[in-house]
Design a protein that fits this description.
The chain is α/β, with parallel strands linked by helices and about 425 residues long. The chain has 2 domains: about 10-220 and about 400-419, Rossmann fold; about 235-400, Glycogen Phosphorylase B (Rossmann fold), CATH 3.40.50.2000. It is about 40% helix and about 15% strand. It has helices at about 20, 45-55, 100-110, 130-135, 135-145, 170-185, 200-210, 250-260, 285-290, 305-315, 330-335, 350-355, 370-380, 385-400, 400-419, and strands at about 30-35, 60-70, 85-90, 115-120, 150, 190-195, 215, 235-245, 270-275, 295-300, 315-320, 340-345, 360-365. The strands form 2 sheets. It has a 7-stranded parallel β-sheet with strand order 3-2-1-4-5-6-7, sandwiched between helices. A 6-stranded parallel β-sheet has the order 10-9-8-11-12-13, sandwiched between helices. The longest helix has 18 residues, at about 170-185. It is globular. The N and C termini lie far apart (about 45 Å). The model is unreliable at about 1-25 (pLDDT under 50).
């Protein structure tokens, strides 16, 4: 298994040392965060939730404003348990052309010291025009004279268009490359752009000749106490989690489970937790219909934040039936936080996380059902093998908790406010 990287400080990842400059300001900050936020079901809502949970505890932040999307039927965001210095502003809607204008108006009213955008390319819409117009938000914030910072979870240069369900046409790929480059330039107009993987920093700096890109690792969501690494004697549960239909699939995993069931004496269950990818609506229903005669396969639909811990805690293995990757994996970080063994392809950004942050797993080649079945069987039969992977992932997750990542953000916030 790979050695676990030294990830105890920003310097270990090559991040910029702002500690001396940051201590020159003692002003308590007003911080605004633009992101979907639970109970919104928008992409990256869970990441925002865990980041906000840490920001709420920071004495350096005197006001915390969440600029988020409007809930269906204009439902109100729950106020119970919200601290007095935290405010939620539902002002924009998915696939609307005026999202950036709505955000700018809210920012102008709040007048924060810094605005953090929690983004991926389809944060504001699966309609390409609406998505692009929404991504003008950081630039418009900067035009307003307020520093803007972006956490960008994926970059266009590492996206497999075919696997992601965007296009397989080479001409369209070229067009999307050109559009993606312009959108990236738009995002890079922010004062600071943070990315979650070291490779992304080098790609952006080289291709776009920019100097405002910094590393902000994903971090691991805190779990409730030390996990139980022992087998559940009653059954073996496989969990797969995400938005499915493009590069995240389910069929091969079900086929692999069927093969393993024929070779082991204990029951196996599979929990498919999540929803369709917006580009492949109806995918999970099609899978459920196709395998309706296979017992022990549960499709949960969207998982509320309060139910996530139970899903992970009750699982034996967390499986990643991916054909490609599009950024740092929040699910891998969650699996580590809950001390779970994982089964995954050693490709792309998953491989980067394994190398940089010390995660490990049972590996298989994408779309290879036999390799997947062999990896799955060993995790379910070999307790020592499964426990070793689970414990290493737990150590990796605890090496870079979200509480530490929040300190990285604060360093950059203070530097922006100082300037």
């Amino acid at each position: 298994m790979p050695a676990i990287a030294d990830i105890s400080s920003p310097k270990s990842f090559g991040a910029r040392d702002l500690s001396n400059k940051a201590t020159n300001t003692t002003k308590a900050l007003v911080v605004a965060i633009v992101s979907p936020y639970p109970p919104s079901k928008g992409t990256l809502n869970e990441y925002a939730f865990h980041l906000v949970e840490q920001f709420k505890l920071k004495t350096e932040i005197k006001e915390l404003h969440i600029i988020t999307d409007i809930l269906p039927d204009n439902k109100a965001y729950p106020a119970e348990g919200r601290p007095k210095h935290m405010y939620v502003h539902p002002v924009w809607s998915f696939n609307r052309w005026d999202t950036a204008l709505k955000i700018r108006k809210s920012v102008s009213t709040i007048q924060p010291d810094v605005v953090l955008y929690n983004l991926q390319f389809l944060s504001f819409g699966d309609n390409k025009a609406a998505a692009t117009l929404g991504l003008m938000g950081p630039l418009m914030t900067k035009w307003s004279g307020i520093p803007s910072m972006v956490l960008l979870h994926n970059i266009i240069e590492t996206v497999d268009y075919k696997s992601a369900g965007i296009t397989s046409n080479p001409i369209m790929k070229g067009i999307y490359d050109m559009i993606g480059k312009q959108i990236t330039n738009l995002i890079l107009s922010a004062n600071i752009v943070g990315v979650t993987i070291p490779k992304y920093v080098h790609i952006l700096e080289k291709k776009y000749n920019c100097k405002n890109v910094v590393l902000l690792p994903h971090g691991s969501f805190e779990s409730a106490g030390k996990p139980n690494f022992e087998f559940n004697p009653e059954t073996r549960n496989i969990l797969t989690f995400g938005k499915f239909g493009t590069y995240k699939k389910v069929e091969n995993l079900i086929e692999a489970m069927i093969k393993v069931r024929q070779e082991v004496p204990f029951p196996i269950e599979l929990v498919v937790a999540g929803t369709d990818n917006p580009n492949v609506k109806g995918y999970l229903k099609g899978v459920a219909d196709k395998y309706s005669d296979v017992e022990g396969v549960q499709f949960t639909g969207y998982v509320e934040e309060e139910d996530v811990a139970g899903l992970f805690s009750s699982s034996t293995v967390v499986a990643f039936d991916y054909t490609s990757t599009t950024g740092s994996s929040g699910v891998l970080h969650q699996a580590g936080s809950y001390g779970k063994a994982v089964m995954l392809p050693n490709i792309g950004d998953l491989k980067e996380l394994i190398t940089e942050e010390g995660y490990t797993g049972a590996y298989f080649s994408p779309n290879n059902i036999d390799e997947m079945a062999n990896a799955l069987k060993r995790l379910l039969v070999d307790d020592k093998h499964r426990k070793g992977i689970a414990q290493q992932n737990y150590v990796a997750a605890n090496g870079l908790p979200m509480s530490d990542i929040a300190e990285w953000y604060l360093m950059h916030f203070k530097e922006l406010a100082r300037k």
